[in-house]
Amino acid sequence: MTFEGLLVECCLNEHLVKEFNRLYGCSLSFKDTRAPIERMIDDATSYNNPFKNKSDEMQQFISFCFEVIWLPLAMNDA
User: Fold this and answer.
1) Which pTM was predicted?
2) Which of 1, 4, 28, 42 could form a disulfide with 47 if both were Cys (CB 3.0 to 4.6 A apart)?
3) What pLDDT sits at residue 27?
4) Residue 69: how many CA atoms within 13 Å on its side-chain side?
């Protein structure tokens, strides 16, 4: 598995994202909770950030996944 694949799996794990938010005081969300009309408007206007995630929180999440999940897995494979 690549780190990108691991990151996708981490984003899809709602419990992991919820606990990350709790520990780091963030508000990341990878679940689309928009109403259908909002989705259509966003698609029509090319609004490209429907989940309103902040880039600094995303960077924290990526670093968290790398340090807490990826590195220990890589160490076990060595």
Assistant:
1) 0.75
2) 42
3) 86
4) 20
Residue 24: which of 74, 65, 72, 70 has the closest Cα? Answer: 65
> 32 lies in which domain range?
3-59
Domains in the chain: how many in total?
A: 1
The residues near 41 (Cβ < 8 Å, ≥ 6 apart) are 47
Closest to 6 in 3D by CA, of 76, 46, 44, 61: 61
CA dist 45 and 74 (Å) reads: 42
Q: What share of the chain is helix, strand, coil (3-state, %, to 5)?
A: 70, 0, 30
pLDDT tens digits, 21-35: 999 999 888 877 778
Is 19 part of a structural domain of the chain? yes
Cα 29 to chain centroid distance, Å, stands at 7
Instruction: Say if 70 falls within a structural domain.
Output: no
Asked whether residue 21 is domain-assigned, the answer is yes
